[in-house]
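My current task is to audit a protein record that another person submitted. Please read both lines and tell me whether the tokens look consistent with the sequence. Do not assume that whoever made the record got everything right. I have pasted the whole thing underneath without changing anything:

===
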Amino acid sequence: MNHTTSRRGIWRIIGASSAGTLIEWYDFYIFGSLATVIAQQFFPKTNPTAALLSTLATFAAGFIVRPFGALVFGRLGDLVGRKNTFLLTLVLMGGSTFAIGLVPGYESIGFAAPLLVLLLRLLQGLALGGEYGGAATYVAEHAPPDKRGYFTSWIQTTATLGLFLSLGVILLTRHSLDPDLNESIRKFNTWGWRIPFLVSIFLVLVSIYIRMKMAESPLFARLKSEGGISKNPLKESFGHKTNLKMVLLALFGATMGQGVVWYTGQFYAQSFLENTCKVNFDQSRTILIWAILFATPFFIFFGRLSDRYGRKWIMMAGLALAIFSYRPIYRQLLHLSTPPAIAVSMGITETPLAENSKRITLPNGFAYTETNNSAPQLTDKHLDPGSYRQAVLLVFLQVFLVTMVYGPIAAFLVEMFPTRIRYTSMSLPYHIGNGVFGGLTPFIATLLTTMSGTDKLVGLWYPLLVAGICLVIGTLYLSNETDPNVKD
């Protein structure tokens, strides 16, 4: 592997890089996975919709600063090395996540609570801005060119597996705080939600120990020994017309489309199930867990496929399929979560609630509340087994499209830029595309939905528009071959 790295050595490198990156993604996504609970803890409870939007905006803030983290840590990585830089980002991410678990709620310290969470969220974004580029570059620079897509695709699984891990820890915590399920859920919503944040510190410490034993990338080490390190990576990356053109092409022809597909297929899917379809907490998360579990191997499949047939057309096919399938998929999710009219006439159970309202449970598990002054409002639905399996399939299809656009993209970005400025050059377009365009997807889509009284699918127009623009630019201007002028 690059004439120096054995097959056993490359797997050790992938394992060490992936472990730390997975933990960083877990730390970053635990916030989004708990958005509805966090909204109740750190914002006034008088307007739940505004609280949720504020939480999603805070979640999105971490994405907005990711490009700044890419600039800061990318420059550091090109100056002092890959290993030490993404060791630093791991420490910063782990400390910020642990601290979020310690912040008092809104009822204790008022608006200082959301401000502290916002600050820590910004630190998380900065850290992640430096992590991904370092890990992808580090693995790619140990791998032979003809297997770069395959080996870097293992790093690509860590983002989705980090989300998977966050969902699993949340559900495990939520159901283990008390033998009585209702009491366990109450405790989780009160203080137990902090546990997933706090336990991350132990995972981070293990990852730090592993990474401290890693050696520097052989390509960077050779470049350093030959005196070929860039003295000003930022100027060389963005001040030279040819390289700047490649940065912009990577952004508008690949990463912004990949970003919206990633966050639509996973985060917006969960948000849509919970907030629009009103599927209950556990089911909305286990649907995503099963979909991720079944789809994750395809990251490796498409990474390996890209070594044989090139990166471009696999990514473009994923974008095209997303554009044409999203509205039918989400329309079917709405259909699955709408109780059949015949169910209303059979086996109804009524539970009196406060303020002249009642909770009505239908025999298929759907439930809704009804008051004397309002139309019935469906809440906390429990899908029947058949509908649940269909929902898993529909979300799986979205995550499958994520694997098409995300599996090959690390190798694609690495191969666009030379070693001396690779960390800086690839990190910025990735984190603008994935972080800003993609990370804003749940917030913008949810906001559009609240502004439209009738069209529950209006939120999809944002990812469809971004993916469409990216598909056109990528198809016309991206190359399916590695630039022969880019030398390792």
Remarks:
- The longest strand covers residues 349-353.
- Confidence is low (pLDDT under 50) at residues 341-350, 373-378.
- DSSP finds 21 helices and four strands in the chain.
